[in-house]
Amino acid sequence: MNWNLWAVILSILVVIIGLYEIFALGEYTWTNYLSTFLFAVVVVLILNSMNKTQ
User: Fold this and answer.
1) Under 8 Å between Cβ of 4 and 49
2) What residue spans define the domains of the chain?
3) What does the pLDDT look like over 4-47, one tens digit per residue?
4) Largest Cα–Cα distance of the chain, in whole Å?
C-alpha cells in the first residue's frame, strides 16, 4: 500500500480520537496515548514521503 494512504487513514483516526476526547466521551486514558502515538507515526510517514520525493 502507498505510505501516503496510510498517513491519511491514520490522520483521520487521530482526528476521530481527538473529537472523542474533546466532547468528553472518553477520559484521558489510553486514547490520549494512542492519539499521541498515531500522530508521531503520521509525522514519520509524512517526513519519509517528503524525503523520497526530493
Assistant:
1) yes
2) 3-53
3) 788 888 888 888 888 887 777 666 667 778 888 888 888 888 88
4) 42
Burial class of residue 46, CB neighbours in 10 A (0-12, 13-18, 19+):
middle
- Which residue matches cell numbers 509525522? 43
> Cell match 487521530: residue?
14
Q: Global pTM? A: 0.69
CA distances from 14 to 4, 25, 31, 38 (A): 15, 15, 10, 6
- Where is 1: in which H helix or E strand? none
